[in-house]
Fold:
Amino acid sequence: MLVTLEGLDGSGKTTVWEALRDDYPEATFTREPTNDSWYGDAVYRSIEDDDADSLAELFLYTADHADHLSRKIEPTLERGELVISDRYSDSRFAYQGATLAASERHELEDPLEYVVDIHAPFSIEPDLTIYLDVDPETAAERAGATNKFERAEYLESVSENYERLLERDPERFVRVDASRKPDAVLERVREALAGAIPDA
Ligand SMILES: Nc1ncnc2c1ncn2[C@@H]1O[C@H](COP(=O)(O)OP(=O)(O)O)[C@@H](O)[C@H]1O
Ligand SMILES: Cc1cn([C@H]2C[C@H](O)[C@@H](COP(=O)(O)OP(=O)(O)O)O2)c(=O)[nH]c1=O
Structure:
């Protein structure tokens, strides 16, 4: 089973993901961008480049995803094990959807759909996606706005894209109010997972 955590920078995904390790010691905890491959390194180089081409950046993130899938996620799922990923494809749909929409170099009719379509032939859809819902100002404040993706204005359009994703796939997403205290957020996430994961 594949569970993903999604939300704006600073929404508290990593905090939740770390806490869940104690609840699911047998699970594989992973993340995107990956931090154990040169594909992930290439993504981080692009994140630091304020002048990166947004389409090139989409393909770097997607290359990292393809490698992550074949190297780690697919083999783990084939063994019937649980995977919990801090960010996954919805981050691309929401973030690169927003970057491409703002790009002056590329004019795609519907960037979010374009990114979704690129994934369709090869990617695996999560069974459950927890969306940690927080407003863009709080998110930017918590994240400390250290890179180009973390500015509140940009996060506003990322947040709109996440809303589109939740709307089109209400069965897969569970929305959790991430403006609450960490303990309350974690409790709600635990409930959602316990309800969805067999024998948990
Ligand atoms: N529910 C919460 N309320 C207030 N601060 C939080 C909450 N969850 C996380 N934080 C803090 O916000 C910052 C970003 O959290 P983090 O888990 O790294 O978010 P993300 O992985 O989504 O970027 C950290 O300093 C963390 O301690
Ligand atoms: C996985 C992924 C992340 N991102 C962005 C979100 C983050 O700003 C940045 C790095 O992700 P991450 O290290 O998870 O940041 P955080 O812990 O602050 O959420 O990359 C994308 O734009 N597209 C993607 O596909």
